[in-house]
Specification:
heterodimer, A: 433 residues, alpha/beta, Thrombin, subunit H, Rossmann fold, ten-stranded mixed β-sheet, 13 helices, B: 584 residues, alpha+beta, OB fold (Dihydrolipoamide Acetyltransferase, E2P), 4 domains, six-stranded antiparallel beta barrel, 14 helices, globular, disordered C terminus
Chain lengths: 433, 584
């Protein structure tokens, strides 16, 4: 027995207010308007006045339309049947498959008890030296790709997803261009990965509010798989669109904005999603790779800024490459001590020298005389960019480390690198000493 | 006790709920909201007419208008008693491992467990006898908790003088068995137990006086101890953009700092970071006691996806526990990571209460709340003349890495040391990324003042020359200036930077810092003869490599002296004179 109400007393933005009794906070309702049916969620209750955000938008909703409360929070079907399927942000199939109603689970469930987490310890190899060597990706990590619009972040995500050793890939698309949606679908299909993937797609032309559900749905489904022992990789693109949708709703609800119009709880909202990344003690894991586009390449913009404080590092994609400065994997230390004993040495030394190279380039650009040392650095920098940094490079970690030593030996004498003697003795290419 | 008071939910906006009531309510009292079979903890934070607004310490999903609310008249409190050390609690002092046993992987809402199990038994040793006069916070006896004597105090909320009527003899007691009976001049009698409750937002002030912090707190981080020291009983803050290494710095400090008890408040930060502490501390040994580090640690963990109202209270919970252990004459270090998340929690609630916002929508009372929090630190002389301290180190996460924002500014006003992390330093992998050019400390170091000053001087000079070189080029400056620049870089590389992943280099005891800084001071103070700039660069590069090796040799080991001799040989080649002999 569901309660039906017809007294819609306010429509503002995509939020409608209806007079109703006995409604639970965050409960789901179905609104039937001349444009069809849409789901809506309770976001504020003030005595009899119940405000709901309408996922399909409020366009065409009339004050006389029926609002039927369903008596539960937002739910989604879970389990093996979802594999290979494509849904929209509310969980409605976009492919020609049947609607699923089995194993319904509530989305946005409670947080994981920190005492039940384990220290992440498994490296995810990607074949990209800028990741494997310098900022290793670790199972259960949450890592965004910071980039400006137009950078190939979706391509990078797809490539990592396909090359990574995971059981299930879940794609949550928010405000995705239709082309990008097709790109993901086709790439996964061509690489034979579609059958272990689930897609929740909200495209740029869909109603904004629906975008808010995508991360929660994707992660709720992922959580079920992880609890069953599966290693799940969740791709979320683009989280900036999610934040903009939050902004829109909070402004509509007349909340006091904090920075640049974003709500004061942006941090908590993002954290509630990203913290779903987990390595369960005695079960599977969720790894989250997200795209965060930075308006104006500004890392201090509230979205990348809050994201950076939540996630375990970030890949900073600029000019088509992963920029070593600004990129960081906070969990790399958990794994890069166990790969090869020169991993950390190569990582630190090459980056420090590359920083010096950047300074020399600056000096050169200003027309200063290049010292012998500058010249060495310039040579090194070019080699580094070409052989290590380029996203075209696709080699195993060990190969990349060997390559690192070769480049160092080609450009410097051992003491110029500042590497400890014991390491030099073990790894410095002999023919060049 | 008056009869139970009830109210009913009228409005719900995320975690802020308005409740109508009939009789009266108490500001900041705890209430429980019943929804279905669950009872959700909440706190009254504003009263208007017959409506009280409450912050709910849980997710409010499914809450309805008309749900029943039961007021308790108690302020949000924590349990203080033996058994806290080694524990991990959420912001409301629920023990998380026990919650996990009860509820599995997820934090089920509405489940509250006792912080200290009533049935736990401790051997009590009395310190007073019947007839003794006693006041709040004086010692009745003690039990042994881990390596400490855990004193049992007369309740902190007593006023005036009380007389011991009864004291239990030495023996085993649980937390529900009284160990003493006290009586005041009005013949009012109370029982004292091994554990007591205390409201978190009120400081424990049962000591004779607060004294000025002067003794350095050794963190074993060279950059901190030698240049920007922290004092026992002092306060310091670590603001920095994300990825600059605040948390790593806090973790290192929690492991190496020379204090008795460390309380870690993981406030609104990543769960993963707490897990690391949680899982590694039982295995890491504390060199001071040869016991696992976890034995001297308490973790208060309210990570970013846990309820935001509990995040607000978590720093108070942490500081209350710190004050409690200070009361035993111990030195306690509270590391709060991050106070910005706590401030943001206040902002979220303030926004939902529709209060008039201050700067960046933070509430107007932000500054006073921050000041009041840091003021709970301090070095105190207890009634029995022993000394205890609470040192607070707060990480700050400024939006956009910009230190001009309200939380950083409000914090800087009230702390005694500022360790500012910079993105440039962390990008250049110069860890710890504390920027020596902007940081400051009002406390005294164990390093000689003259040597410390030289250190600061060379860094500023070196940076000045670097800035000049950026404008006029390397060729535009004299060899002498170039050498000064290299000295600054050298000092940074071999002394300020510390390799957190090298077993020796990650922590440098005070004695070694004094020795090595003295040694380096002699180098910084020397003149050298170089052919040209490349010659100088090469020399310092070589020196740097030797020093790096030196830093990872064990203190006063054979290797240590061998490397020192190598360094001396290298120095002899180029050193012409040392301006002033400072080190034997």
């Amino acid at each position: 027995m569901h309660k039906v109400y017809t007294s819609i007393i306010q429509i503002a933005g995509d939020v409608i207010t209806v007079e109703a009794d006995g409604i639970g906070y965050l409960e789901i309702a179905e609104i039937s308007s001349r444009r069809g049916k849409s789901l809506a969620q309770v976001i504020r209750i003030d005595e009899k006045k119940v405000s709901l955000q309408v996922f399909a938008g409020s366009k065409g909703v009339s004050t006389g339309d029926k609002v039927r409360f369903l008596g539960h929070a937002m739910r989604v079907s879970s389990g093996e049947n979802l594999l290979g399927r494509i849904f929209n942000g509310s969980g409605v199939p976009l492919d020609r498959g049947p609607e699923l109603t089995q194993d319904m689970i509530e989305i946005a469930g409670p947080p994981v008890n920190p005492a039940k987490r384990i220290i992440p310890h498994k490296m995810i190899r990607t074949g990209i030296p800028m990741i494997d060597v310098f900022n290793s990706l670790v199972e259960s990590q949450k890592l965004p790709i910071f980039s400006i619009a137009g950078e190939p972040y979706n391509e990078l995500m797809a490539r990592i997803a396909i090359q990574a050793e995971v059981d299930i890939i879940i794609l949550g698309g928010m405000g995705l261009k239709y082309d990008d949606y097709l790109f993901f679908r086709d790439t996964l299909e061509e690489q034979g990965a579609l059958s272990r993937s689930i897609l929740f797609i909200h495209t740029a032309s869909d109603p904004v509010v629906e975008c808010l559900l995508v991360p929660d749905i994707s992660l709720a489904v992922a959580e079920q798989f992880a609890l069953q022992g599966k290693r799940v990789l969740v791709l979320l693109t683009d989280m900036t669109n999610f934040c903009d949708a939050l902004k829109e709703i909070s402004i509509t609800m007349e909340q006091v904005p904090s920075n640049r119009g974003y709500p004061g709880d942006l941090y908590s909202q993002l954290a509630a999603r990203y913290e779903k990344a987990v390595d369960f003690e005695g079960a599977g894991s969720i790894t989250i790779l997200a795209a965060t586009t930075m308006p104006g390449d500004d890392v201090t913009h509230p979205v990348p800024d809050n994201t950076g404080y939540i996630t375990e590092g970030q890949f900073y994609l600029k000019n088509g490459v992963i920029e070593p400065f600004g990129s960081l994997s906070r969990l790399k230390q958990q794994v890069n001590g166990k790969t090869r004993d020169d991993h950390r040495t190569i990582m630190d030394t090459m980056i420090q020298l590359f920083a010096s190279y950047r300074q020399s380039v600056e000096k050169q650009a200003m027309g200063f005389q290049m010292s012998e040392w500058d010249k060495k650095l310039l040579r090194y920098g070019v080699l580094f960019e070409e052989k290590i940094m380029s996203l075209k490079v696709n080699i195993a970690l060990e190969k990349a480390l060997d390559l690192g030593w070769q480049i160092l030996a080609e450009c410097f004498s051992p003491e110029e690198t500042g590497i400890k003697k014991s390491m030099i003795e073990k790894y410095w290419p002999q023919n060049r000493q | 006790m008056s009869e139970k008071r009830f109210g009913f939910v009228t409005r719900i906006n995320s975690n802020i709920v308005a409740v109508s009531f009939d009789s009266f309510v108490v500001q900041n009292e705890v209430a429980y909201i019943s929804t279905g079979s669950q009872r959700l903890k909440a706190e009254v934070i504003r009263v208007r007419g017959k409506s009280a607004e409450m912050q709910v310490y849980e997710n409010t999903s499914g809450l309805k208008v008309g749900d029943k609310v039961e007021f308790t008249e108690e302020l949000l409190s924590v349990e203080l008693g033996p058994g806290l050390l080694g524990q991990i609690f959420d912001g409301l002092q629920n023990p998380l491992p026990q919650l996990a046993k009860e509820c599995g992987f997820f934090l089920k809402r509405g489940v509250y467990l006792k912080a200290l199990p009533d049935e736990s038994v401790w051997e009590f040793f009395p310190l007073v006898k019947p007839g003794d006069k006693i006041r709040a916070g004086e010692r009745l006896g003690f039990v042994h908790e881990k390596i400490f004597k855990h004193y049992i105090f007369a309740p902190f909320n007593l006023s005036g003088s009380w007389e011991v009527v009864n004291i239990s003899p030495k023996g085993n007691y649980n937390l529900k068995q009284p160990v003493a009976r006290l009586k005041n001049s009005d013949a009012e009698e109370i029982d004292a137990f091994l554990c007591q409750n205390w409201p978190v937002k009120i400081p424990i002030q049962a000591y004779s006086e607060k004294i000025k912090p002067k003794e350095p707190l050794v963190t074993k981080m060279r950059l901190i101890d030698s240049l920007f020291p922290v004092a026992r009983g002092g306060t310091y803050c670590i603001p920095g953009p994300f990825g600059a290494g605040k948390t790593v710095l806090q973790q290192l400090t929690s492991r190496h700092a020379e204090v008795d008890v460390v309380i870690i408040a993981a406030c609104g930060e990543r769960a993963g970071e707490v897990v690391e502490t949680l899982r590694t501390f039982p295995e890491l040994m504390d060199p001071r006691s040869n016991k696992p580090l976890i034995d001297r640690t308490i973790i208060i963990c309210n990570t970013s996806s846990m309820p935001v109202a509990a995040r607000e209270s978590s720093v108070y919970t942490a500081v209350t526990l710190a004050e409690y252990y200070r009361q035993m004459g111990l030195h306690v270090l509270l590391l709060a990571d991050s106070t910005s998340r706590w401030a943001q929690a206040m902002r979220e609630m303030s926004g939902r209460l529709e209060e008039i916002p201050g700067e960046e929508a933070f509430p107007a009372y932000l500054e006073s709340r921050i000041a009041a929090f840091y003021e709970r630190a301090g070095l105190v002389r207890l009634y029995d003349n022993s000394i205890g301290s609470v040192t607070i180190g707060g990480a700050v996460s400024p939006a956009g890495g910009n230190f001009e924002e309200p939380v950083t500014q409000a914090t800087l006003k009230v702390v005694g040391a500022f360790h500012g992390l910079s993105r440039e330093r962390s990008d250049a992998r110069r860890y710890p990324a504390i920027d020596p050019l902007i940081s400051w400390s009002k406390y005294k170091s164990f390093v000689e003042e003259k040597i410390m000053r030289k250190g600061h001087e060379i860094l500023h000079k070196s940076n000045g020359i670097l800035q000049m070189m950026k404008v006029i080029g390397e060729e535009g400056i004299s060899l002498l200036d170039y050498v000064e620049y290299l000295k600054g870089e050298f000092f940074d590389f071999v002394y300020l930077q510390q390799n957190a992943f090298d077993l020796v280099d990650e922590s440098t005891p005070a004695e070694r810092q004094q020795y090595v800084f003295g040694f380096i001071h002699a180098i910084l103070d020397s003149d050298f003869s170089f052919k040209d700039k490349p010659d100088a660069l090469h020399f310092f590069q070589q020196l740097r490599q030797l020093f790096r090796g030196w830093n990872s040799t064990a203190w006063q080991s054979e290797e240590f002296y061998k490397t020192e001799a190598e360094i001396n040989t290298a120095l002899k080649e180029k050193q012409i004179k040392q301006k002033e002999k400072t080190h034997a």
